[in-house]
Amino acid sequence: MIRLAALLLLCLTLMSAPARAADACGNPPLPQGPQRVVVVHQQAIEILLALSLEDRIAAAGYLDDALPPDLQTGFDRIPIRFDRYLATEAVAGLLPDLVLGGFAAAFGAGGLGPRETFAGLGIPTHVLASGCMTAGDDPVATAIADIRQMGALFDRQQRADALVAEIEAGLETLQPRPELTVFIYDGGEKAPYTIGRDGLLTRLLARGGARNVFDDTPGRWATVSWEAVLARDPDLILLVGTTADPAAEKRRRLEADPALAGLRALQTGHVATIPFSETVAGIRTGTAARHLARILAAARQSAADAPLAGDAPSPHNIP
Question: How far apart are CA 279 and CA 212, in angstroms?
Answer without folding.
Answer: 13
